[in-house]
Structures are given as structure tokens and as C-alpha cells.
Amino acid sequence: MDPQDVDFAHTEQAARNRREKALGIARYVWDRDISGDELLALPDSQLKKLARAAGAHPPRSTETWTTVAELLREKTEWAAKNPDHSAAAKKHADEKIMWVKPPVPPWLS
Question: Which contacts (CB < 8 Å, 24+ apart) does range 45-53 have?
């Protein structure tokens, strides 16, 4: 197989790079108390800003964001079993409002 025939996006190296990027973003997102579902509901423009704030180049594929959401779900399960561990703490939960806006209640009920 010629090097030009290789689809880099589907190589083991690309998968490792995606996972490494996803880990960095997941750490940042975890500290801000953003869930995987909340993350995946954000518009692309917000995801790009979030990635940059996490110190990562914004992912081009939804695969990376899906991996971030999976990592957050795993960490949530782990944190529920280990609530006293320092890694279970969300150090910047007050910054969540910068990324995920709470629903606006209707004027009339």
C-alpha cells in the first residue's frame, strides 16, 4: 500500500491523538461540572471555544467530542463510587454558566 493511499483519520496513531485530545478537553470540562449530554448539546461554535479554552485545537470530528462525553460518563460513575477522592472534585463548577446556560422558565405557566 502506498503512503498516499493511507487514510490517516482511521489509523491507530490518529485514534491515539484523538484520545489524547479528548482527555485534555474532558479534564477541563469535568472541572466545570459539564455533563457529557450537556456537552453534546452545545452548538459547534461553543464547542470550538470550549476546546480552545481547554488548550486544545478544536476537533474536526464529532468522534472526538463523543469520546469526551464517554470519558465524562466514566468519570461520573467513578466519582459516585469515590466521592471523597480529590479527583472527584469539580474545581471550577462556578464557571459552568459560561458554557451551559440554564433553561429560561416560561413567563406564563
Answer: 46/99, 50/25, 50/99, 51/25, 53/28
Which three cell numbers, joined as nine digits, stand for 108? 406564563
- CA-CA distance, 88 to 30, in Å (whole number)? 9
CA dist 79 and 75 (Å) reads 6
Decide: 65 and 71 in contact? Cβ < 8 Å.
no
Contacts for 48 with CB less than 8 Å, ≥ 6 apart: 58
> What is the pLDDT averaged over residues 21-42?
96
Distance CA 50, CA 100 (A): 11
- pTM of this prediction exceeds 0.85: no
For the record, the C-alpha cell of 109 comes out as: 405557566
Percent helix, strand and coil across the chain, each rounded to 5?
65, 0, 35
